[in-house]
Amino acid sequence: MRTFPNPSFTGDSADISRLVAEVRCGEVPPYTPSPSRANRALADLLTRDPGRLDPAAPDSVFATGPRPETGQPVPFLPRERLLTRDEQRTAAECFARVLAGGELTSGPAVTEFEDALADFLGVPHVVGTGSGTDALVVALEAVGVGHGDEVIMPANSFAATENAVWARGATPVLVDVDPDRHTLDPALVEAAVGPRTRAILPVHLYGRLADVPALVQVARRHGLRVVEDACQAIGVTGVGKYTDAAVLSFNPYKNFGLTGKAGAVVTRDDELAARARRFSYHGFDPKRKNVKEGGYGLNARMDNSTAAVGLGLLPRLTLRNYRRAFLARRYLDGCAELAANGSVLLPAFEPDHAWHLFGVRVTAGRAARDSIRAHMRSTGRVETDIYYPVLTHRQQTPLHRELFGQVVLPRTEHLHETVLHLPLHNDLSLAEQDRVIEALHAAVRATVR
Ligand SMILES: Cc1ncc(COP(=O)(O)O)c(C=O)c1O
């Protein structure tokens, strides 16, 4: 088995792309991480011990372990493995320190975490919140979205995106997506701008950035604000750098999952950051205890205990994203034959992508997609999933029927009917991944042709 000696490794993007290429023993486009403290931590690890990048090394940075037997299920996202054992130890130590001191809600770790994350992301301000949902509500308030406004967003997202708009007394306007990116199509966004439009809320679905430069152009032309829902895209270059604000989630299922609900607003704008801080904690002046500066606000600040865990785990973030990029690349290689014969469509490999979810599109349509999932589950014993099972405009509530009953989004609907998601998590072992690839091949053979 190969090892990967690289004594001159410095951790810059050229070095990392070389390493990725070596690990794959093949051609890979350059990996372009943002220059940050967390990347330096990865660089340190790899400089110290580059052999750990070898998937076959006993202390590999990739999850190792025996190949699961065919009868043994490969779960989609096993809860007990959201943090690796090593990460669980770090998290427990961080939490125990806070617990002993009793500063469980507010405390110094919040600011320290915010500063460290700002450094990681290369943006001036991070405001830690109680969840990604809180961060969306706070960011929308901070950019001035309020009662009677409209916010343009996609229909394929977690409910938090639309709920944040409702929470501001505003109305979501659903716009179709670019079929390759699965994210807002800027031309259609522009066509949907009306007199009440206040903001654009793109979602970086599955960890791939929406076309932010084009959306910012549209916003400039019409005097709109842009808030990025980057809950699935932490670590991707440029998040929060070109828009009014970006929103992150650290819930345990995310790339940078912590030990409970948490999120953040990220912004370059001093005033917007101050407003977000105020609104996320009862409208209080952050420097004067229990003295209001804003009319009202929420109890939506990040807990000190979660922030302490975040600080402990932040140096692992780049490694986690790196693992995901590696596994995504491996899925693409493993499924290339299915793409070549036209059975599936695969996402293009982009190294600067959080690879929060790995989607495969079944070209034969919804019935074939559902049969493949069923075959993978029953015969292959591999769990897959669909994100998200119900599109926003197809939710069956009186509100949704009344407002979106007539809405048709052909591309979003087509993607939704044909996509399935394969297991891709921090602790997915290469042996498990091989089982997934084999199960997909067998299911396609059995159902599509
Ligand atoms: C796209 C998207 N937006 C918003 C959220 C909400 O984040 P949280 O669960 O931290 O409230 C999530 C995560 O669940 C998400 O995936």
UniProtKB/TrEMBL annotation:
A Pfam family the protein falls into:
DegT_DnrJ_EryC1
Span of the signal peptide: none
Q: Which SUPFAM superfamilies match?
A: PLP-dependent transferases
Give the residue ranges for region: Disordered. 49-74
Q: Which UniProt keywords apply?
A: Aminotransferase, Pyridoxal phosphate, Transferase
Species of provenance: Streptomyces viridosporus T7A
UniProt protein name = DegT/DnrJ/EryC1/StrS family aminotransferase
Q: Which PANTHER family match?
A: 3-OXO-GLUCOSE-6-PHOSPHATE:GLUTAMATE AMINOTRANSFERASE (PTHR30244:SF36), TRANSAMINASE (PTHR30244)
